[in-house]
Amino acid sequence: xxxxxxxxxxxxxxxxxxxxxxxxxxxxxxxxxxxxxxxxxxxxxxxxxxxxxxxxxxxxxxxxxxxxxxxxxxxxxxxxxxxxxxxxxxxxxxxxxxxxxxxxxxxxxxxxxxxxxxxxxxxxxxxxxxxxxxxxxxxxxxxxxxxxxxxxxxxxxxxxxxxxxxxxxxxxxxxxxxxxxxxxxxxxxxxxxxxxxxxxxxxxxxxxxxxxxxxxxxxxxxxxxxxxxxxxxxxxxxxxxxxxxxxxxxxxxxxxxxxxxxxxxxxxxxxxxxx
Length: 275
Fold this sequence. Notes:
Its main location: membrane. Belongs to the binding-protein-dependent transport system permease family. CysTW subfamily. It is found in: Cell membrane. It holds the Pfam family BPD_transp_1. This is ABC transporter permease. The chain is mainly α and 275 residues long. The chain has a domain of 169 residues: MetI-like (MetI-like fold), CATH 1.10.3720.10. The protein contains eleven helices and no strands. Helix 3 runs antiparallel to helix 10. The longest helix is centred in the last third of the chain and has 38 residues. The model has no long low-confidence stretch (mean pLDDT 89).
């Protein structure tokens, strides 16, 4: 067996350091969230308990944690639905070139390179100028869509570029209407990609801070609430909150992956029955 080159060990060490850098802060917060009742925000730990997790469900002296969570969850769902609907419709529309399609595409993608805080400021100013209320469910929704829609569009463009149009032609040959073709042929085939767009929409919205900072109005979303807590909370309860939100995010991802797996199994079973 040939000895491994020195570069292999260097790359392995670099990868290990990268993983530690990536997940080290999250793991550290997870560990510190299990401090005892007299614990602080740093090591060494003063006992081990779940005291601060229980403390989260009691009335807090500062902030509105669960109200902020409900707002972030509701906003994430709204952004997810809007991102899926607009991305799928845009993907279908861009299958054929039309006047201004190139400019529209680049204008949409450009929002990814514009500083997020400037978009938040711009959306907030527009709402103020037209006399509309700056609120997390309106201006916040609009600001976050500038972040999620480009990802959804890129996914849908990639999907439809590889889509075999013969499936649609076969459906039309069988007498299917355009809507029946989309509903019973196109959407089932691209369903896993739609789930991916939905996951992008929800997860990017749920933890978005900069684009919500100046568009949430007087009610904080969860990222804004956590940021506010960092300035006046000196107890590990903030770590417990961070741990729970991280676990919640992983559960959301697991739910989407499980749904994608079930859809794939369902398609395989349908293919076996048809064969």
